[in-house]
User: Fold these one by one.
Assistant:
Number 1:
Amino acid sequence: MTLPPLTPRMRTILRIAGYAAFYVVALITFAYLTFPYERLKDRIVQEFNSRQTGADALRLELDSMSSYWLGGVEAEGIRLISPPKPASGGTAPAKPSTLAIESAHARVGLFSLLFGGLDLSFGADAFGGEISGFTSGDETKRKIELELDDLDLAEAPLLATLVGLPLSGKLSGNLDLVLPESKVSKADGTVELEIEELAVGDGKAKIRDTIALPRVEAGTLVLKGDASQGQLKLTDFSAKGPDLEIVSDGSIRLRDPVHTSFLSLGLRFRFTERYANKNETTRALFGAKGSSMPGLFDLDPKNKRAKREDGFYAWRITGVLSNPSFTPGGPASPPGR
């Protein structure tokens, strides 16, 4: 079977289409090879750092930026540096904390742009693990999928700075949300996170610069929640380790921006007998076994009011996410775990 010969008109159309295709490919290739990634890197660093204000302002550093496949960029050597804490008690100020990410990338779906949407895939090699995600949609609705795999908390010192004690453990999980009008305050979806081998403290770092607690092993911490119209309800928040048990319930009213979200949570925790009798420090803090003398921990008026008959300390956590308030009390019922 032979094809009919091309007419002069068809040859002209094919020639024009070929020129157009060559032009588009050449344009994309030229832009791909000559894009000013160094200037983009400097702009991102400058914009981020200029927005940081106050005593806790972070500083961003980037080693390099380059292309990532077609329509994407990749950054390497990302560092978020927090200022050192002020000196107290005549001691030298602590060193700045650095949150380092080996590499991160983001890639725009070019075809989605043609139809007025924005599809973006992203990922990072960070904290000894991997982060990957995808977001799609437009101004009317946006979907976000995020997956975390074996992130080492010990490699994220900024988290330790927030908690006030060193942390260790492996964080994994996923987040799947739909944001109507791209607003977190209207989010629907699920959150599932898990920290395996969670431990707090190292026996050296002091709580409020007063006492250094031995390492606290909390086992596996599970956090699960369902979001509906911006109300995130905790369906499971618990850990039961050899040294510490934790149970929490309640909800979070999500807001824009996220750090203004409002908390309404109940938190209950207790240290196990094993931990309370670990050494002289813990026996003095929580009371020696069989002794009628209360431990130093229970001499604090707030801790005394928070303690329940089952040994749990119950607290209510309210206020905005960036500045929560802790009040002794909480649900009257025992945790049942």
Number 2:
Amino acid sequence: MKKRLLFVAAIVAASTTFAQDGLTSKKGEAYLPEAGDWSIGFDAAPLLNYVGNAANGSTNSTLTAPWMNGTVAQELRAKMFKDENTAYRLRARIGTGSTSADALGKYDMDADATTPDVDYVVSTKTSQGFSVVLGAGLEKRRGNTRIQGYYGGEVMFGLLGGPSTTISDGRILSDDYDPGVRTTETKAGSTIVFGLGGFVGVEWFFAPKVSIGAEYTYGLGFQSTGEGETTTEDWGITATEAANDIANGTTTPNHIITETVKMGKSGGMTFDTGNMGGSINLNFHF
């Protein structure tokens, strides 16, 4: 009887050990997320490129990722686990950026070949504008091992500030220097984006509460871009001034003519994959 009890106890212990094998670490830490857990994730591609190319000298050996380029390639992702198989998803991206550059040179400002040319600077500044992208969704999970499958749906909304470029040209327009029409500023309209779609993915927990996964999305997207404008300057007189001179026998002196022209709106709709080839994600749960 005693031997039988010992045998049954051994079977129960072995079954318990087998059921938990691979789901807890040697320290007793759970690998998989639990109810009430949060996670923070990000695109793992820049990190993988860095690790994979660290020894090749220069190619993809900097730990960087695309930012404000009109897409949502890099963003902060968070989850809140309602239970072991259900999670609420949130994602956000907020930012802005600008660049500037100077071009130096010399030009003939008085149309006199006997005088030296004069230095000038053309300063160009480009601003991306303020952009924000927000998303929310529901995720369902399956699997009883450290490899977890998941699926679900989400909605996204974004406001992408249109880029603007300002050009300050140090070459002074005059009767002696008239290069024709030149652009001084361009402003693109802001873009509103809206998306509704689904996702499917797989996640491998290679350490307690730390995972790497691949995700594929498909959905419906809308976008609308508002009017932009282009501002130019030229040397001379306007058509109205020329007509008045003819009618009144006057002569209007040449001057800088500034003109702003509106650019049209645009919009579109797509139903397609949200991330061609899928995405690789690194997630930390706590």
